[in-house]
Design a protein that fits this description.
The chain has helices at 41-56, 61-107, 114-130, and strands at residues 136-139, 142-145, 148-157, 166-175. With 184 residues, the chain is α+β, with helices and mostly antiparallel strands. It has a domain at 61-175: 2-Layer Sandwich (Pantoate--beta-alanine Ligase, Chain: A,domain 2). Strands 1, 2, 3 and 4 form a 4-stranded antiparallel β-sheet that branches. The longest helix is centred in the middle third of the chain and has 47 residues, at 61-107.
Length: 184
């Protein structure tokens, strides 16, 4: 029967400390900050561990990425929409100038009011194709230089990006159509 005063058994692998040496303290690694010796080693090691864990922790990183990338994404999306609006307004101005030039070529030698007719045709095209907001401040100057007529359609495309002013201009010109009888 074992004696009741026997010492408890130590776990396998544990180091034996000689009696009277007290608690073993690990030496701090790296430079010691002022006042660090006053704090227990477990407190210093705990702060370092928390700091290292905070550096590895990526919680909140997606929120920061979202905040940084959102304005860029909005700018790209609005830029694509702005480009589409400008392109469509330029196509409308081009089609209107071509329609006005066709009318001017046909009417320049036949009618005295060919300029008003060509200008009206171009404005009708703008109204039909662009609707009420795509092309504003539309001006349609019509001119003739010898046997050539020209129609210019100029207007402002809508700007959704702040600080932009987008002017659209399209010119169409061609020779005046004339009826020439046979043999003459």
């Amino acid at each position: 029967m074992p004696s009741p005063v026997t010492a408890p058994r130590r776990a396998r692998g544990s180091a034996h400390r000689p009696p009277g040496t007290g608690e073993h303290r690990a030496r701090p690694r790296g430079p010691v900050r002022p006042g660090a010796a006053d704090r227990p080693a477990s407190d210093r090691d705990g702060r370092a561990a928390r700091f290292r864990a905070a550096l590895r922790d990526d919680s909140g990183a997606s929120a920061v990425e979202f905040v940084m990338l959102t304005p860029i994404m909005f700018f790209l999306i609005f830029g694509a929409v702005q480009f589409a609006l400008y392109s469509f307004a330029a196509d409308v101005a081009k089609a209107a100038a071509q329609a006005g030039a066709r009318e001017a070529r046909r009417e320049a030698d036949v009618s005295a009011g060919w300029q008003d007719s060509a200008r009206g045709k171009a404005r009708d095209y703008v109204r039909q194709l662009a609707g009420p907001g795509l092309l504003s401040n539309v001006s349609v100057p019509v001119g003739r230089n010898g046997d050539m007529v020209s129609v210019t359609v100029t207007g402002d495309a809508p700007a959704i990006l702040p600080g932009m002013s987008l002017r659209v201009t399209a010119v169409s010109e061609g020779p005046v159509e004339r009826f020439v009888p046979d043999g003459g």
